[in-house]
TrEMBL record:
UniProt-recorded name of the protein: DUF4406 domain-containing protein
Highest taxon listed in the record's lineage: Bacteria
Gene3D superfamilies listed in its UniProt record: 3.40.50.450
Biased composition (Basic and acidic residues): 126-135
């Protein structure tokens, strides 16, 4: 199985490469193939050029894992919507690790896992759960959509 990592990069220290690389290392250590956008190198590449390269790589993957902070990233939101639209399974990394047998296996087999990475993921889990709870409390008739009545949803599955 090949996994695509999606998350915030622009405006973060070192483009958030440390988090991307740590997650990629953990996943590879237990046998997954990973497309890691932090490993893409373009000479003087623009945001648009990086997105085009990353999306090409994403299309060769089997699922998308959304890293902490993805909701605030323009690029990760594009990737999330595209994955949804083409039927690719997608899930936040936190939810995948916490609630799936596959995620539990990764945690069990990837020792030692970076303490910093786990702390970041655990701190983000509370934020994601709070956002989800707020979204559900604001929903009308069971719909917590993507705005403007477009029928889209920020929920993720896979």
């Amino acid at each position: 199985m090949k996994i695509y990592l999606s998350g915030p990069m622009t405006g973060l220290p070192n483009f958030n490469r440390d988090t991307f690389n740590e997650v990629a290392t953990v996943l590879r250590s237990v046998g997954y193939e990973v497309f890691n956008p932090a490993e893409v190198q373009l000479d003087n590449g623009t945001w648009e050029q990086y997105m085009r390269e990353d999306i090409k790589g994403m299309m060769d993957c089997d699922r998308v894992l959304l890293l902490p902070g993805w909701q605030k990233s323009a690029g990760a939101n594009v990737e999330n919507r595209l994955a949804r639209d083409v039927g690719m399974p997608r899930r936040s990394l936190v939810e995948w690790l916490a609630f799936s047998e596959e995620g539990h296996r990764v945690l069990a087999e990837s020792r030692p896992v970076s303490i910093r990475l786990l702390e970041q993921l655990l701190g983000t889990a509370d934020t994601e759960r709070g956002n989800r709870e707020r979204s559900q409390s604001l929903s009308v008739g069971g719909y917590a959509g993507g705005g403007a009545g477009d029928g889209s949803s920020d929920s993720i599955s896979g």
